[in-house]
Amino acid sequence: MTARIGVITFPGSLDDRDAQRAIRLAGGEPVALWHGSHDLDGVDALVLPGGFSYGDYLRAGAIAAHAPIMAEVKDAAAKGMPILGICNGFQMLVEAHLLPGGLIRNAHQQFIRRDQRLRVENADTAWTSAFEAGQEIVIPLKNADGGYIADDETLKRIEGEGQVAFRYLGVNPNGSLDDIAGLTNERGNVVGLMPHPEHAVEPGFGPQTPAAMRSGVDGLGFFTSAISAVVGAAA
Amino acid sequence: MPTIVVDVMPKAELLDPQGKAVTGSLARLGHGTFQNVRIGKRIELTVEGEVTEEVLAEARQVADEILSNAVIEDVVGVEVLAEAEEQA
Fold it and tell me: For the residues A88-112, what does the mean pLDDT come to?
């Protein structure tokens, strides 16, 4: 079977087409979905893409988290469907309480864009099984509101239960507590991160690597992981 | 028409990057008197008709569930705007 992975477009989404392309390059079938509908079109997995939905009004991701389709997204999350939130999508997942904590303006107040080294902390999720725990990857990062925060109790819990999926290496680009770049829920099907794996899927268009310019394709593993999870579940 | 004012502030224990930047700017401009600046949001909800207890309760609910995020912010006030202020 070919895994059908939906990408939800919200008003102000920017990287929905890039996410669709990444799914195709990873061997899946991308399915375009619209925020205003209540129809997930029978997809096997979901991506909430990056961008600036509703201009980041109120709080980044806050208005999108209450979009009509989010009712179905929450149901799907509860049933175990693999769901990935990238950047603005991650902000939506925390605003929808599908992941713990919150994201605030970068500590240095600036928008930042860089090829970011990350460590995969949890390789047992639906979106990280193609990696090994402790593996270092390089994924482009670009955001203004990427500072991860949570109260002490929440932080202790997510650290203790392995819910920190990715950590920034080298530079903490936005003041995130514990260098947290991405999280998973307890079940491992819902994952969110600030960096953009969909921008590291094709040689010539990815981040810089020591081997060659723009040759980084570490983002592919996110999508092949989800495809394996879906195909494995169906088999 | 009556207006309900919702005031939202970033949690005291968390970094407020906006406030921090403005604190630095005031100090550079010679206003070091103001040791600390914190920046929140004032949201005005206009109501048709009377502000009953139910309406106020609904405003509090909206303030807690949508207008603020309890992880990063506190709702510090949900109050009906005084009429004098409203006409000004």
Answer: 94
Contact A150 B21 (CB under 8 A): no
- Nearest Cα of chain B lies from the Cα of A49 at a distance, in angstroms, of 21
B10 in reach of chain A (CB within 8 A): yes
pLDDT in tens, A170-192: 999 999 999 999 999 999 999 99
- pLDDT value, residue B85: 62
* Domain extents in chain A: 4-234
Concatenated DSSP letters of A118-153: EEE----STTTTTS-TT-EEEEEEEESS-EEE--HH
More confident call, A113 vs B18:
A113
For residues A56 and A46, what is the distance between their CA atoms, to the nearest angstrom? 21
CB atoms B69 and A59 under 8 Å: yes
- The whole-number pLDDT of residue B87 equals 58
Give me the interface pTM, i.e. the ipTM. Answer: 0.82
Domain-embedded: residue B31: no
Pairwise CA distance, residues B10 & B20, whole Å: 12
Q: Is A57 on the interface with B (CB under 8 A)?
A: no
For the stretch A162-171, pLDDT in tens is: 999 999 999 9
What are the pLDDT digits (tens) for A15-31?
Answer: 999 999 999 999 999 99
Q: Is B34 within a domain?
A: no
Stretch (H or E) spanning A186: none
Residue span of the structural domain in which B73 resides: 3-14+40-87
- The percentage of chain B sitting over the pLDDT mark of 70, rounded to a whole number, equals 93
Candidates B42, B71, B74, B75, partner chain A, best to mutate (most A CBs within 10 A): B71
> Active-site residue among A87, A95, A121, A199?
A87
Amino acid, res. A150: A
User: What is the number of alpha carbons within 13 Å of residue A17 lying toward its C-beta?
Assistant: 2
CATH code given to domain A4-234: 3.40.50.880
Chain A residues within 8 A of B21 when measuring between CB atoms: 109
> Annotated catalytic, A87?
yes
B17 to chain A, any CB pair closer than 8 A? The answer is yes
